[in-house]
Amino acid sequence: MLREAKGGLLVLSLLVGAGAGLGAIAFRWLIKTFTLLLSGHSDYAAAGHAANPHVPWLGRWFVLLAPVVAGLLYGPLVQRFAKEARGHGVPEVMFAVARRGGRIAPQVALVKSLASALCIGGGGSVGREGPIVQIGSALGSSLGRFVHVAEDRMRVLVACGAAGGIAATFNAPLAGVFFAMELILRDFTAESFGMVVLASVTSSVIGRAAFGNTPFLHLPAFTVHHLSEYLLFLLLGVIAGAVGVGFSRVLYWIEDACDFAWRGPEWARPAVGGLLLGLLLLLLPQMYGVGYPVLENAVGGAYGIGFLIVLLVGKMAATSLTIGIGGSGGVFAPSLFMGAMLGAGYGALAHQVVPGIAGPVGAYGLIGMGAVFAGAARAPITGVIIMFELTGEYSIILPLMAAIAVATGVSRALSYDTIYTLKLRRRGVDLGERPHTAPFAGMTVAAVMEPLPEPLDSAMPLTEAADALARSPHGVLPVLAADSTYLGTATARTAAETLAEAADTVPSVGAIVHLPHPVTAETELSEALAALVTAEGAGLPVLDGTRTRLTGWITHQAVLHALHTPPRQTADPTPVL
User: Fold this and answer.
1) 251 or 106: which leads in pLDDT
2) Which of 77, 167, 219, 272 could staple 204 via S-S, CB 3.0–4.6 A?
3) Which of 240, 120, 115, 129 shows the shortest CA–CA distance to 180?
C-alpha cells in the first residue's frame, strides 16, 4: 500500500511535486488574467499612471476601484469557504505541520488560488510565493488524507508541496528544498530531505517547461576588488536585519489598527479597505501587485536614492495595508522588494561616499534582497540559496553569505519571533516552546498502556459504528480489516460529520479511517504524548513491532496517571489482535 510501503512515500512525493508544479502554472495564469482584467496591463507596476484601456474614461483614477472590485469578489469567497486563506499563508502551513499532523482543509488550495490571484490582480501589494506554498501544501495534505498516510508522512508531503511551489515559481529547486526544511518541517532527516528534493525537482522540471530556464535576475559583472568592501556588506547586513524586523512589526501594527477600526462584516472588509489601498496606489502605482518590474529597475540602477527610500517605505505600508484589510498574498516577495530598494540605495550612497571601494549598485541590491528576507524570516540558508539561484551568479556568494549571517544575528537580537512565527504567537502558539523538564524520561508506552477497546470492522455500516463510537469513553475506536490487520482509527466527530453530509448511501467505517502517528509499546512516553496532542481523538492504539496488529491503548488520562504513580515495568498481558 502507498501509505505504508517503503517506496510509497517516494511515489506520493513525486505526485505532490507534479501537482505543485501544475498548481504554480495555473496560479500564475490566474494572476496574469485578473491583472489584465482589472488593470488592463500585464503588470501595472511598470505602467506608471497609465489608464486602464477597459475603462479609459476613468484615467489614472481606476486604481481607486480595482482593489474594491477585487475585494468584493474574494472577501465573501474566503469568509464562506476557507478563512485560513486570508493573510500570507505560510504561518498556517507551519501550524498545520507542527500542531495538526499536517492536516489542511482540501478546499484551501482552490480558495487560496482564486483569492490571492484576485487580490494581486486588483492591486494588492503582496507576493505570489506565500500563496503557492499554501496551495502546494494543501495539495500534499489532501493526497495524504486520501490515501490515509500516517501523520509523520503527512508532514513530509506537506513540506513536499511547499518546496514544489517555491521551486516552480522561482525556478529555484534548491531554494524550495531549504525553504521547506528550514521553515515548514524545521528539522533535517535523511528520509524527509530526500522526499522533499524529489518533489522540488519534479515541480521545477514542470515549471521550467512552462516558464523557461533563464535566471530571474541578471547581475552585472561583479568582483570584490578591495577586502575593505566586506565592511560595507557587513554594515548592509546590520541595516537589512533591522529593516526585516521593522517590516514584521509594521505589518502587525497595521493589522491591529485595521482590526480595531473595522466594525462591519468580515466579508466586506477587503472591499471597504480597498479604498485606502487604492489611494496609496494612486500616489505610488509602483506598489500595484507583486512589483517585480520595479525591483528589476532598482537593481539596474534606474532610480535615485530618494525615490528608492520612498519605494521602500511605500512597499512596507502597501503590503501591511493589503494584509490588514483582509487581503490574501505572501510577504516573501515584498521582503525581497524592500531589500532591493534598501540595497540599491545603500550601494548608490556608497558610490558617493567611497567611490574607489564600492562595487556595482546592482550587487548591493541583490545582497539587500537576501539580507532583508533573512532578517524577516530568519531563514539564512534559504536566503543564500535563493539569491544564488535567482541570479545564477556565484561571484556574489561570499558577500551575500556575510550580509545574511549578520542580518540573521541582528534579527535574532532584536526580536524573538520571525515574520511568520509572530502571527502564530499572537494566537498563543509558540512553535519553539519546549518542556523545561523531562517528567517521562526513560518511560515507555508499555508502562502505562490500557486494555484495548472493542475495535470496529472496516466493512461495518457507519450508522452502526456511530452507536459504538457514541458509547466509547474517548470518542475514538480502532478499525480493523477483515483479516484483523490494523487500518487506523475512526472518531465520533468524523462519523457525525460524514453522516450529516451523506445523501442516499451510507458509507462504511473504512471511508472515515484516519491513520495517526504509529505508537508501539517501546515508544518513549514523551513521543506518545506528542502523538496524542495531534491525534484526532483522545486515544491512540498501541501496535506491535510490525505495526499491523494491536496490543493496547493509550490515552491522556493514562499519561497523566503516570505522573503521580510509580510506573510498572511491563504492561498487563494483552492478547494481540
Assistant:
1) 251
2) 167
3) 129
Within 10 A of 99 (CB to CB), how many other CB atoms are there? 14
Q: Which residues are CB-neighbours of 550 under 8 A, at least 6 positions away? A: 452, 455, 478, 480, 486, 541, 542, 543, 544, 576, 577
> CB neighbours (10 Å) of residue 128?
26
Contact 485, 513 (CB under 8 A): no
What residues have CB less than 8 Å from 112, skipping those under 6 apart? 82, 85, 89, 131, 134, 135, 138, 328
Please say whether the beta carbons of 93 and 134 come within 8 A.
Answer: yes
Give the integer Cα–Cα distance in Å for 35 and 56.
16
Q: What is the torsion angle, in degrees rounded to the nearest 10, for the CA atoms of residue 395, residue 397, residue 399 and residue 401?
A: -170
**Cβ neighbours around 406 below 10 Å, total:** 23
Instruction: Return phi, psi of residue 191, to 5°.
Output: -65, -50
308, 345 contact by CB (below 8 A): yes
pLDDT digits (tens, 9 = 90+) for 157-201: 999 999 999 998 888 889 899 999 988 887 777 778 899 999 999
Query: How many Cβ atoms from other residues are within 10 Å of residue 124's Cβ?
Result: 34
Rounded CA gap, 51 and 508, in Å? 59
Q: What is the DSSP string of 133-163?
A: HHHHHHHHHHHHHHTT--HHHHHHHHHHHHH
Contact 172, 166 (CB under 8 A): yes
CA distance 289 to 121: 6
CA distance 259 to 237: 33
Which has the higher per-residue pLDDT, 166 or 216?
Answer: 166
DSSP β-bridge partners for residue 461: 508
Q: How far apart are CA 357 and CA 229, in angstroms?
A: 6
Q: pLDDT category, 563, cuts 50, 70, 90? A: low
CA distance linking residue 63 with residue 282, whole number of Å: 6
Instruction: Calculate the CA 408 to chain-centre distance.
Output: 20
Tell me the per-residue pLDDT of 3-62, one tens digit each, with 9 for 90 and over. Answer: 566 677 889 999 999 999 999 999 999 999 999 999 989 889 888 888 889 888 988 999
Pairwise CA distance, residues 140 & 155, whole Å: 9
CB atoms within 10 A of CB 81: 15
Amino acid letter at 8? G
Q: For the chain, give the number of residues.
A: 577
The two beta strands, 456-457 and 476-480, are parallel
Residue 62 carries which DSSP code?
G
445 with 525: CB under 8 angstroms?
Answer: yes
The answer to whether 155 and 530 are in contact (CB under 8 A) is: no
CA 115 to chain CA centroid, Å, is: 16
